[in-house]
Amino acid sequence: MWESLKGYVKPGSVEDGLVREIDFSRLPAHVAVIMDGNGRWAGQRGLPRIEGHRAGSRSVREVTEAGARLGLKYLTLYAFSKENWKRPRPEVVRLWGLLREYLKREGPNFMENGLRLRVIGDRAGIPALAMRELERTEKATAANGGMTLVLALNYGGRAEIVEAARAILRSGRVRPRDLDEERFGSFLLTAGIPDPDLLIRTSGELRVSNFLLWQIAYAEIWITPVLWPDFRREHLFRAVVDYQKRDRRFGDVHAREGGEA
Ligand code: IPE
Ligand code: IPE
Ligand code: MG
């Protein structure tokens, strides 16, 4: 078993069994998660939606630690979409407030665990107080060598692609015949980050909701009915075990190795 998981999973537990099934030489380098179901989780308990988001931030903490201990290189969490501004104002305000609380609380853990933070999304539209906290954490963790936690905030996949096209035109440096997929990708917010190998969506919805549209071209998709606030390390391990059973063919007739950055 991976050194960093010793003492983290209890011997004989469900998590332990799952971890033993994992082939650590074939880990997904990048796991992306559409964290969904906070509102329903709260509704089932007769609580306001924000309590679901609060509970969801505990799952963020657990999955981040589990991902880092597992040895993932990148973990991307979809936390706020461009479309989420349509929600009632009080929910939106509290969501950004929760993010700030989360950053204040987790900042020290980022350093302790060598995590790097990177934000993708339309930064100009992120509330100033939250943006300040995000930039501070990005700077403080920039030289860390562990897993990169990518937070998708005020993020929209189509907007990202349009913005990349604008940046290419503005640069005036790319001739049409020189523009290929790799070059285009270097203008996206995820420049330098390998495409997700595994995309997880919680709460059973069968859609991608404008998340990483370009980057998930060949991601393996794993959907669970579990609501995000109930998502635990065991679910992440299960997703990785299932991922490793898939044949990733990338259009070929045989399985091909992909993923490892
Ligand atoms: C996901 O939970 C969190 C965000 C989108 C910020 P939801 O708030 O979408 O929860 P449901 O889908 O209403 O249950
Ligand atoms: C997707 O969840 C966005 C995030 C997880 C941040 P939504 O709850 O906003 O997606 P839809 O509306 O169900 O597609
Ligand atoms: Mg939702």
Description:
It is a single chain. This protein is α/β, with parallel strands linked by helices and 261 residues long. Helices cover 41% and strands 13% of the residues. The protein has helices at residues 14-21, 38-44, 49-70, 89-112, 128-141, 157-171, 181-185, 233-243; strands at 30-34, 74-81, 116-120, 148-155, 198-201, 220-223. It has a six-stranded parallel sheet with strand order 3-4-2-1-5-6, with helices on both faces. The model has no long low-confidence stretch (mean pLDDT 96). The structure holds 3-methylbut-3-enyl trihydrogen diphosphate (IPE) (2 copies) and magnesium ion. Residues 34-36, 78-81, 84, 205, 207, 209 line the site of one 3-methylbut-3-enyl trihydrogen diphosphate (IPE).
